[in-house]
Amino acid sequence: MTRHLRADVVIVGGGIVGGSAALFLRQAGASVILMERDRPGSRASGVNYGGVRRQGRPPEHLPLSQRAHALWASLESLIGEDGEYVRSGHLKLARSATDMASLEAYAARVENFGLGLRLLDAADLRRLYPMVGDSAVGGSLCPEDGHANPRLVSPAFSRAAAAAGATILDQSPVSDVRITTEGFHITSAQADVTVSAPVMINCAGAWAGELAARMGETLPIAVIHPLMAVTEPLPHFLDVSIGVEGGGIYGRQVERGNFVFGGGRGFAHPKAGAATDSTPPDYARPERHAALRLLAQGTGLFPALQGCTIIRSWSGVEAETPDHAPIIGPSRIHPGLFHACGFSGAGFQIGPAVGAVLADLVTTGRSVTPLDAFRPDRFSSPA
Amino acid sequence: MSLLVRYAEQSRPPLRFFLDGQPQTALSGDTLLTAILTCANRLRQSEFTGENRAGFCLMGACQDCWVQVRRGNGPVERLRACSTLLEDGMSLSTSPAAPPVMTGDLP
Amino acid sequence: MNSPVSTPLRPVIIGAGPAGVRAAVTLAAAGLRPILIDEAARPGGQIYRQPPAGMTRPPEALYGFEAAKARAIHTALAPYAGQIEHRTDTLVWNIERGALDLMHRTADGQPVSTVLPYDSLILATGATDRILPLPGWTRPGVYTLGGAQIALKAQGCGIGQRVVFAGTGPLLYLIAYQYAKAGATVAAVLDTAPFANRIRALPGLLNCPDTLLKGLYYTAWLTLHGVPLHSGVILREVAGPEGAVSALHWRDSHGQDRETACDGIGLGYGLRSETQLADLAGCSFSFNDLHRVWLPDRDAAGRTSVTGVYVAGDGAGIAGADAAEAAGERAALALLQDRGLSVDTARITVLDRRIARFRRFSAALWTAFPVPAGWAQDLPDSMTLCRCEEITVGTLRRTVQADAPTELNRLKALSRIGMGRCQGRMCGVAAAEVLAHETGRPVSAIARLRPQPPIKPLPAATIPADTAGEATP
Ligand SMILES: Cc1cc2nc3c(=O)[nH]c(=O)nc-3n(C[C@H](O)[C@H](O)[C@H](O)COP(=O)(O)OP(=O)(O)OC[C@H]3O[C@@H](n4cnc5c(N)ncnc54)[C@H](O)[C@@H]3O)c2cc1C
Ligand SMILES: Cc1cc2nc3c(=O)[nH]c(=O)nc-3n(C[C@H](O)[C@H](O)[C@H](O)COP(=O)(O)OP(=O)(O)OC[C@H]3O[C@@H](n4cnc5c(N)ncnc54)[C@H](O)[C@@H]3O)c2cc1C
Ligand code: FES
Fold it and tell me: I need a surface site. Which of A43, A332, B15, B94 has the fewest CB within 10 A?
């Protein structure tokens, strides 16, 4: 017999965003039910690079990112485990004078946001980071940026929400949404459950557009598949997370010695029969030569990578918006519905803060954190 | 101490190589694994506990036999010891340290 | 490349063991020009693996009763040298959207990766040992059974002077015999399968009386030469000073704890199909209760769920070398039929009957030598389950407690099991048993590890070349 459940808020999607929204809403006293199709944190939030990086984000994103920065500092008290979070520093390398100039320009632009950036010339770089090869001419260091293990952190947000009293329904794909004057009635046929709530939050990641479309709303998101790969464990040579100005490889050496790196795109791996144009597939795989090409760049930057082997590569399913800014805020057409999606490959660091501002929006109607850059109604042609 | 014992095919021509900087002899047709384990009792050390390892499957499946190799003064390569044949003069390492450049005459 | 008007591509076969070689020869005899790819330098696969050039022992010394078959496989390609392109020393490390990724090294050792598009593909990737770890199994001196045999066959070496063969399966007795013949002391053969299982399996084993006879011969020979054979044992621990093996601790069928001194151990519980490429090619899989693993779905001829992709030999489920030859030929005939070419249907009938008989035989082998029941029950927390990442049983148990994973890939994400260099080839079967046991679910209900390219480590220095040409039929 179908179960009928009620709550103040129903969240669809148990990634880092849905999980943290559930946690903060509980902390604010709301009753919460989170519906997750698979297991919490098993999609983009669980397969990403784990970069907890503010450096490089546009100034208008930084207030949200700074709020997240403060939350990451208290991660363990928030989710009950350290998630291998470390403030290793994030070093963005310049391979030309032009790239160095743009690092300098960025540092000037974000000066007032408190990132504490340090510009390094070639001599600084050689002195502080002797492992960097000659192809870098300078860099910009954000000492308090870092990384965490997404496979551990993201599921832990939903677990912490559950510990705080949220109901987490996993293996519960939403199959039907009905909207009445009383609110949202969301059914998962597979889990044989219907959840009713006056407030609904769409945290369905790359599948958020599909979910919105079922409610008659168009969200301008496209599916992307960032590439990740990892080498065998190597003797320690690198203790800072690396990016490169102008794009290309990013990477870090994890504590166990593997060099994890990314950059570029994958392709979708359609699950048999089910993927259609409107349904992003469940899995993605990297383009065949992407990892080799990236690692060739990596070896130029870090001679210590010479002669190593790549042992695995993977990708994830993520949503991107036209302006690469996420969509966070109230629906344009349904009162009580909020969207939080389109993180464009950068939602892990801000994830905890997105949950916090969603709790603000739901419980108080506004947030202390400026969200203008993320308004769902900023795109020109509404549904 | 050696781990592998030669039971047959012992009249092959010898090959010389360096193991952790020391000159050693093996037989032509030996894999890196055979060459190393007929004169030593480990191939490599585990990255995490430092435990000695000496391969396991010998057929390219377990990947527990990757060793660092240098030819002459060339760059360091990592090769799978059970499925790579030894070449005369190779310098091999059984530790995380890179195999030293060994040039000049072998004994 | 898949448009109907274009001429078909050269068929591709991965694996030059008995299955792949027979497939290649069958296609060549029908006038096609297949490409045969293998990581190894010479044809033969696992059972008929050839030693490197320059070794002198004749096939009779290397393959015993199977010498004639080995020789036939080794020489089968030569008559078709102009038609079959045998790419040796070439690893297939990925399959992506209708094309293979191949890695080989140029003469000066530079690794190069090329792309080979296919429209028909026969996967004859064979098998590796099925491993269930025991405490101490990562010590130098412990090898897979297959590994122990390869040392002897391909290198003239043994894994010790006083060797124990432990686990289960017919290879235990064969390899013990081969070691004893070579001059090693076989300290014991310890079979976890109760002897009664072999009696129960007898009717099925009679499907291949000559293979059964060979097995009986090895056992009799070992007994005659004073090698202790024990059935129904429980393997407890590999003991010795740090980094070495000095004894195997085990419990006999009467519950008595025993210890056998040795300096080498060959360990294996039958074989496990190499299915990563079938997975990457998009083939659907089902759990096979008999083999206790997931295998690609296929029809009797080897057609998978993906049009143009076939599986043959031990890579499609363990059935032995003779079955592999028949299945390779059968898959090739299916490929020819699917290309609209005429084939000898009488031959198909013969092969189908033969394959069915081998299957009944191999099913009986799993009855005779089953995976030990309750293996996952009494494992100590401290035992290393994954030798690549050094993940212990205790870590898996804690992960299960914290997150209640219901399938292996979740366990992998949370514990790193299967994330190492071998991608679960060695630990996957054991991890599945542990997860099933800890969650009280059948092994069939916890899925299988998703392979991730490269399926074997790929040198960072590999130069990607965009296509390999090779489009002529
Ligand atoms: C390879 C890769 C590397 C990345 N690297 C970084 C990085 O270094 N730093 C960074 O900040 N960001 C990074 N990102 C981006 C980051 O991972 C994402 O922006 C973030 O995880 C998005 O979180 P989410 O909760 O919105 O999405 P997800 O984690 O995808 O969660 C959405 C959830 O909704 C569920 N769902 C979908 N549809 C339904 C339905 N109908 N019913 C029920 N549940 C449903 C899904 O199963 C999924 O669990 C990376 C992304 C990828 C893919
Ligand atoms: C070590 C070992 C020893 C054995 N000894 C015996 C024995 O003595 N007697 C007996 O009856 N049975 C034995 N067996 C079982 C026997 O191997 C099989 O029954 C038979 O060899 C199966 O033939 P096949 O053609 O299916 O596969 P195999 O003979 O295993 O051949 C598969 C081939 O595919 C190649 N290959 C696989 N993946 C790739 C890839 N990604 N890229 C390139 N090449 C690839 C491999 O290198 C291999 O040469 C043994 C098995 C093993 C593993
Ligand atoms: S010993 Fe297993 S891959 Fe070499």
Answer: A332
